[in-house]
Amino acid sequence: MPIPTRAQILDFEKIGDPLADAVVDYLYKNKLRAPNIWQLVQQQAQAGSKECQALCDEVFSVPEWVDWQQIERGAQVFLRSAPLALVAFALGALPLTYAVPNIARVLASTKRLEQDAIRRLYETGSMVADVLAKGGLKADGVGLNSVLRVRLLHTFVRRHVGIDDAKKGLNLPLAINQAEMAWVACGFSYVVLVGLERLGVYLTDDDKRAYHHLWRYANYLMGVNPALLANSPAQDALLYAQLKTVLCAPDDCGRLLTNTLANSFAGQPPFFLPRRELGVLGSIVIPDKDLTQGLGFNLYPERHLLPLVKAVVYTASRTSTLATAQVADWGRDYIRYVLDDGLKGRMADFQMQMGAH
């Protein structure tokens, strides 16, 4: 995959998710809604909707490059280091989405990250857990179901924000556009791998390729244009760097969301750490010092203890690779415990209120 130029990335900022956008327009036109929108879309495809059928055709046509063994191994890479992988995800990948001003302003406009922050974050974690499930991304898998529900949720948000921007006479980038979707995709893949290594987790090149492959397919199902999906961890790093130069400029809104995230996790599972220590971890797992500071994470002196921590983690993670399947099962149990506690018995619904738009 050629790394897109700056001009190409700017062009991708003008593109949403054409197939999903057409589906949501169809649902609004026909005043259709349901608790599980992806299930509704499949029902409408069977009933003859061309828009819904087109999306289903894309989703259920598995690309030739998909390797199911690699996907299962990629899930095990995350699961066998689950506590630290959650650190890299929650304190690295998630805050980095707020480094893009347009993403931050769209998230802030929904009010959920300010008013219901912890639940919103656990719902995102629930999608990740479903992606990691055995067979999760196959046609009848829980991961595919969750990814498509989130994809359609993003499409509803893009539609609402676009209409509201037009009413206000605002000429702003398209909400949840392809360039931003690619940036978020890099968070799930590249940023988590970097975070794990920065925390001392032992990863082989095969581990990295498998984990990248898992998220390459998950992000394809999420609607990211194939031209923005790297085909190797090395390309992922280059894509991340290019997208960063074009999209990232942390602002007050991004810092507010980052602070809200850290405050919401303070003293809570899965970390049970004070706010300051969460900031220390965030400053470690985010790949770039400029973005770390731009998002409001201070470079606390406790960072100097990292070599000691990495030595302990490295030794433990080398041991865990000797019993990968068993350790992965423990990781699944741990993540499920964290999510059950965080969601308080209310399963993730991946919905937004559908107004008159």
SSE order and pairing:
Layout (H helix, E strand, L loop, with lengths): L5 H7 L5 H12 L7 H10 L3 H11 L7 H12 L2 H16 L3 H10 L1 H4 L1 H16 L9 H26 L10 H21 L6 H17 L11 H15 L4 H14 L9 H11 L3 H6 L11 H15 L3 H20 L14
Helix pairs in contact: 2-4, 2-10, 3-4, 5-12, 5-18, 6-11, 6-15, 9-10, 9-18, 11-12, 11-13
In short:
The chain is mostly helical and 357 residues long. 68% of the residues lie in helices and 0% in strands. α5 packs across α18 and α6 runs antiparallel to α11.
What descriptors fit this protein?
about 350 residues, mainly alpha, 18 helices, about 70% helix, globular
What would you note in describing this structure?
This protein has helices at residues 6-12, 18-29, 37-46, 50-60, 68-79, 82-97, 101-110, 112-115, 117-132, 142-167, 178-198, 205-221, 233-247, 252-265, 275-285, 289-294, 306-320, 324-343. The protein is mainly α and 357 residues long. Helix 2 crosses helix 10 (142-167) and helix 6 (82-97) runs antiparallel to helix 11.
Ends: how far apart?
38 Å
- Characterize the overall form: globular
Q: Please give the largest β-sheet.
A: none
Q: Report low-confidence residues grouped into runs of 5 or more.
A: 353-357
Secondary-structure content class: mainly alpha
Strand content: under 5%
- CA radius of gyration is 20 Å
The ordered string of helix (H) and strand (E) elements is: HHHHHHHHHHHHHHHHHH
In percent, how helical is the residue content?
55-70%
pLDDT averaged residue by residue: 90
Number of helices: 18
